[in-house]
Write a structure and sequence with these properties.
- With 505 residues, the protein is mainly alpha-helical.
- The protein has two domains: 408 residues, Growth Hormone, Chain: A (Up-down Bundle), CATH 1.20.1250.20; 73 residues.
- The protein is 74% helix and 0% strand.
- The protein contains 23 helices and no strands.
- The longest helix has 33 residues.
- The relative contact order is 0.14.
């Protein structure tokens, strides 16, 4: 750990108390993320009231919970492409204003079918996290990006906990759950207008670097093309898993399930063809060595985020019921006790980013946190009804620290892999967080909580071992803000790649 690293991080942390310059952009952006998560998670704390008023069943609520995350996976990928093309200011503002649509649809819904449509639409709002990753990276130098991204992710992610704490009371105060959900959406839309008028994509004097080709993530090596094809299959495959689960609980017929799976299979083929078409220059080995980036780093980061954020989403979903069953607690007490897991976001995710900035080796930091995460889930697997509740809560907080610090360390690396496509890389890595959560929750259904915790722990150790293939980003501790350096013209066949890195940056 160098004294200059410590000084930079200290300056950034102290700057958080000011609302000027890049710190102002950070505060405006994490609050945008916070509002998208309030809207995305607005239904869950009110689900019991909605069930009683509309006569829904437990299976109905399960379907709605699945619908709430179904479109988040593809949306994160598509939002990543959009922000690299149009910039985070316009994309975030548009998404915030759009958030009012599913919120108002939910508020005015009078049937289960209308709620299904509304919660499917709400899943798109959950993609907002991706946008701020690039915005923050544009405003903070590489040496501070871990801390800044950690603050953005940790404080913004707290929106899910804030929704659970505030919306039920707001509903009682304002006259019902419908008003509470609508208010969250309207607040997000109003803030979208404010965000559009008060931020810029980059500091003055810096150019926003855009990808040279649209339609898929631009990769720079031949192996990267085939790796991207393989990496995208699970993103659609997880929608197949969701379809299967909906069929299991009777919400879809077997015929409809197979029809959906067939459509997803066709989409996999279409998407694979599009990836190859967009990346013909990489297949032709047209990129100079200095303009290439290691696609294997993207794969490792996807695995790391599937284990960290994926397990967080899964555990947050099951922990209240787990505490109630294990310690015979009332639903209210169990929910309050389990909230210790989410509360750690305020400090743990920023701590992961700070450690990544301070330690001087981002790969080693992530690997260490993932290894400790494996131990954290082994500890949670050992929790039983014979433990004091306080000891169980401490075990949860210990585990959640490494979960969320690992998230911070992951996204301390993501925006540094390749700046001009960092939005798309963030989108894919973020989508794998949702993939991980759905896989872990499916495991919970068939194997029970002890196996659930143990498998997540082993997955964390596998991700830690995979970090040996993660490449430390070049210039990841540069103290100056700047985009990609020009590397000259990429020589490719006419019509395949018309611009140079210099012109695109």
């Amino acid at each position: 750990m160098s004294s200059s690293s410590s000084t930079n991080v200290t300056d950034l942390v102290s700057g958080l108390w000011h609302f000027t310059g890049r710190h102002r952009i950070l505060h405006l952006t994490w609050f945008a993320f916070f509002l998208t998560f309030v809207v995305w998670f607005s239904f869950a704390p009110l689900a019991g009231t909605v069930r009683d008023q509309l006569g829904l069943t437990a299976d109905h609520l399960t379907v709605l919970a699945l619908c709430n995350v179904a479109l988040t996976v593809p949306a994160r990928v598509l939002i990543g492409m959009a922000l690299d093309r149009w910039g985070p200011r316009r994309v975030y503002s548009t998404l915030l204003m759009y958030a009012a649509v599913p919120a108002l649809m939910t508020a005015f819904a009078t049937s289960f079918q209308l709620l299904v449509v509304a919660r499917l639409a709400a899943g798109i709002v959950g993609a907002g996290f991706v946008v701020g990753i690039r915005m923050v990276a544009e405003w903070f130098p590489p040496k501070e990006v871990g801390t800044a991204e950690g603050v953005y992710g940790g404080w913004g992610n707290f929106g899910s906990a804030a929704a659970a704490m505030v919306l039920p009371g707001l509903g009682l105060l304002l006259g019902g759950w419908r008003v509470a959900v609508a208010a969250a959406g309207i607040a997000a839309a109003l803030y979208g207008v404010i965000y559009l008028r008060t931020v810029t994509d980059t500091p003055e004097g810096h150019t926003f670097a855009r990808p040279r080709r649209q339609g898929a993530l631009e990769v720079t090596t031949r192996s990267g093309v085939f790796g991207l094809v393989a990496l995208n299959v699970p993103l659609l495959g997880i929608l197949g898993l969701l379809t299967w689960r909906l069929q299991l609980i009777g919400s879809l017929t077997v015929g409809v399930m197979w029809a959906v799976l067939a459509v997803l299979g066709v989409l996999v083929v279409v998407q694979s063809v599009g990836i190859i078409r967009v990346n013909l220059p990489a297949l032709d080995d047209a990129y100079p060595e200095e303009d290439r980036y290691p696609f294997r780093s993207v794969v490792v980061l996807c695995l790391a985020y599937a284990v960290t954020f994926g397990s967080e989403l899964a555990v947050v979903s099951m922990l209240p019921a787990y505490f109630a069953d294990t310690f015979a607690l009332s639903p209210v007490v169990a929910g309050a006790t389990a909230s210790a897991y989410a509360f750690m976001n305020l400090v743990a995710r920023p701590a992961g980013g700070i450690l990544s900035d301070l330690m001087g080796d981002r790969r080693r930091t992530l690997r260490t946190l993932l290894a400790w995460l494996g131990g954290g889930y082994a500890l949670m697997a050992a929790v039983s009804g014979t433990w004091p509740v306080v000891a169980a809560v401490l075990a949860v907080m210990c585990c959640s620290f490494f979960v969320q610090a690992g998230e911070g360390a992951t996204f301390a690396i993501v925006p540094l892999v390749k700046r001009r496509v960092s939005g798309q890389i963030s989108g894919i890595v973020g989508a794998y967080g949702n993939v991980g959560s759905l896989l872990f929750l499916t495991l919970l259904l068939v194997a029970g909580p002890t196996t659930f915790f143990l498998v997540i722990g082993v997955s964390a150790l596998v991700a830690a071992a995979a970090c040996r293939w993660l490449v430390e980003p070049e210039g990841s501790f540069v103290a100056e803000l700047g985009g990609e350096r020009p590397h000259g013209t990429v020589h490719v066949p006419t019509g395949r790649l018309a611009t140079s890195p210099a012109s695109s940056a």
